[in-house]
Specification:
Shape: flat
Largest sheet: 4 strands, antiparallel
Order of helices and strands: HHHHHHHHEEEEEEEE
Radius of gyration: 33 Å
Strand order of the largest sheet: 4-1-6-7
Length: about 280
Amino acid sequence: MSIGNSPEDERPFEDERVEDDREEARPSIGRVLQQARIAAGLTVDDISSATRVRMNIVHAIEADDFTACGGDVYARGHIRTLAKAVHLDPAPLLAQYGDTHGGRPAPTPAAPLFEAERIRPERRGPNWTAAMVAAIVAVIGFVGFTMFQGGDDSAGEANVADGSTPGASVSPTTKSKKPADPKPKPSDSAIAAAPQDKVTVRVAAADGRSWIAAKDHNGRMLFDGVLKQGDSKTFQDSSKVHLVLGDAGAIDLFVNGKKIEDDFQPGSVERLTYTKGDPEAG
């Protein structure tokens, strides 16, 4: 009588080896994020500036070391933010993290634990109570002013009817003051009149919001942030302006008063350098 294992007893071990092979074939979370960042043409410094996640944490996550995150809740938040910054769907990466780190974390308080995910502050709703109070005060003031003016007009009409001369309030020599001329609004012509010995670059978010970074010829940071749709920034330097556009398709560029007609694609990352003279990408 044989006491060895039957083929049926050995099958579970074979299934486990197949499953292990599949796990090894799937790239790690850090590897996926690193490859997507490189494909997008971004450095770790670019990602850190765009997401407000510290560079050492970005390096650690790309090396699949999540201890620097400070816990599962923060690690998931960092994974979600980095995935969005390189145009990846964070859901598969979060599911993979749950498989290797014990599933979903326990519920946490409703406090803002992960502020780095907010690239810019959220808009608050209008304060309707304050608006209603202001409207009521304005209506009361208008009614009181109208009644006061009406009383003065009726008194003046009574004086004229009695043949009396109105007081000094009706002075023929008094000249009404002309309203001050409003200050002219800046326009694109101001850029065209920029000094010829400098380079002037205007960045406008015409078709959506975009993260941008601008440096002068010495590498000093002039701006690092997000322009929402309709916003614009103007940069000037004695010789060069370096730009990084997170979503170049949403941006209109004006260099030394001339619009750049490059056909930037939505979602594309562009690194540009402009100098004095005719607009020309460096």
